[in-house]
Automatic annotation (TrEMBL):
Gene Ontology terms for molecular function: ABC-type ferric iron transporter activity; ATP binding; ATP hydrolysis activity
Coiled-coil regions, chain positions: none
Transmembrane segments: none
Matches recorded under Gene3D superfamilies: 2.40.50.100, Nucleic acid-binding proteins, P-loop containing nucleotide triphosphate hydrolases
Keywords: ATP-binding, Cell membrane, Membrane, Nucleotide-binding, Transport
Domain ABC transporter positions: 4-241
Pfam families membership: ABC_tran, OB_MalK
Family in the record: Belongs to the ABC transporter superfamily.
Xref: InterPro entries: AAA+_ATPase (IPR003593), ABC_transporter-like_ATP-bd (IPR003439), ABC_transpr_FbpC (IPR015853), ABC_transpr_MalK/UgpC-like (IPR047641), Mo/tungstate-bd_C_term_dom (IPR008995), NA-bd_OB-fold (IPR012340), OB_MalK-like (IPR040582), P-loop_NTPase (IPR027417)
Protein name as annotated: Carbohydrate ABC transporter ATP-binding protein (CUT1 family)
The species this protein was found in: Rhodovulum marinum
Single GO cellular component term: ATP-binding cassette (ABC) transporter complex, substrate-binding subunit-containing
SUPFAM superfamilies, alphabetized: MOP-like, P-loop containing nucleoside triphosphate hydrolases
Length: 358
């Protein structure tokens, strides 16, 4: 296991990058703690796999360093980094049995046969393939092969880190939940440093101790699921985390008041003069329809999703989503929306602004 340090790390696939847009990874400085489970979360093309491949040694960064504990491994080959990596699509040896596929990393390192047999049995139990250990991998389904690939990545206990690059893409939904649970259990039992790349927020939030949200080649926030939900550091985090995501509305902010299209929204904190693009952000969970004061809205539709209702409304040309309880009656008089002042965040040029006590 290892602490992973990214020191002024950046990467471009162009030989002579000139503008900000030429960098697949913008400069970043982060320390990822030994033994923690991290999820790299973001949309396709945001730099997740590029960063993972730099950590694993499959790609050399254009600038900066990567350290495992205090050792500089920036230019060390993958074989010297003592990591395991599981890719998006299964990589197995078709001519080998499931047992031999799982045992391969341990046999390759000369481990004792009794220990290999014990570890293979334990991993096979975890991935639900105990009854297929003597089958050849050829002819197995794609999700079965991916389970073998996952198992082979986890069979070693002595790795510095285990890296997962969207490993559940080909797994059926029920088995995804089972394997995520097993990965979490493995992390608790053995304390490997784990980094899990995904664009699925459910996977990220259920797997990780901390989620690393990436956008446009940048790490825009590292936090617990609660921190990402309660206080998104960037409007993208608010948009990407949650279903539906955070309402983001252009506003003028003056002290403890925000003004949207002339309508007043109270804030729990005070703010000084703000420049640039100013917006407020509030989760649909903290918006409420009322017949009294608030922003006048037009309700476009109501979606009943079982445990709650999602109200799609419009304020001038701004879409506002509201989550109402399943038992709430939404009458014709409910034409205004109010926000919980303590849950309203203020952003300038997409970044969270810290307010002062009102």
């Amino acid at each position: 296991m290892a602490r992973i340090t990214l020191d002024k790390l950046a990467h471009s696939y162009l030989p002579a990058p000139k503008s900000d847009d030429d960098w697949a990874l913008k400069e970043m400085n982060h320390v990822w703690e030994d033994g923690a489970a991290y999820a790299l979360l973001g949309p396709s093309g945001c730099g997740k796999s590029t960063l993972l491949n730099i950590i694993s040694g499959l790609l050399a960064p254009s600038q900066g360093r990567i350290l495992f504990d205090d050792a500089d491994v920036t230019h060390a080959p993958t074989t010297e980094r003592n990591i395991a990596q599981v890719f998006q699509f299964p990589v197995v040896y078709d001519t080998m049995t499931v047992r031999d596929n799982l045992a391969f990393p341990l046999r390759n390192r000369g481990r004792d046969p009794a220990y290999i047999a014990e570890r293979v049995q334990a991993i096979a139990r975890m991935i639900g393939m105990e009854d297929q250990l003597d089958r050849k991998a050829r002819g197995l389904t794609a999700d079965a092969k991916q389970k073998i690939s996952l198992g082979r990545g986890m069979v070693r206990r002595d790795v510095n880190a285990i890296l997962f690059d969207e490993p559940l893409t080909v797994i059926d939904p029920h088995m995804k939940w089972e394997l995520r649970t097993q990965l979490k259990s493995l992390h608790r039992d053995f304390g490997h440093t784990m980094i899990y790349v995904t664009h699925d927020q459910t996977e990220a939030l259920t797997f990780a101790d901390k989620v690393v949200v990436m956008y446009d080649g940048r790490v825009v926030q590292i936090g617990t699921p609660e921190e990402l939900f309660e206080t998104p550091a960037h409007t993208f985090v608010g948009y990407f985390i949650g279903s539906p995501g955070m309402n983001v509305l252009p506003a003028q902010v003056d002290g403890t008041r925000a003004y949207i299209e002339g309508a007043e929204v109270p804030l729990a904190h005070g703010y000084g003069a703000l420049s640039g693009k100013v917006e407020i952000g509030v989760r649909p969970e903290f918006a409420r329809l009322t017949a009294g004061d608030g922003l006048p809205v037009k309700i476009r539709r109501i979606e009943d999703v079982g445990r709650h209702k999602i109200v799609r409304a419009e304020f001038f040309s701004h879409e506002i989503n509201i989550i109402a309880r399943e038992e709430d009656h939404i009458g014709a008089d409910r034409t205004r929306v109010i926000f919980d002042p303590a849950r309203v965040n203020v952003y300038a040029d997409d970044w969270l602004v810290q307010g002062e006590a009102a």
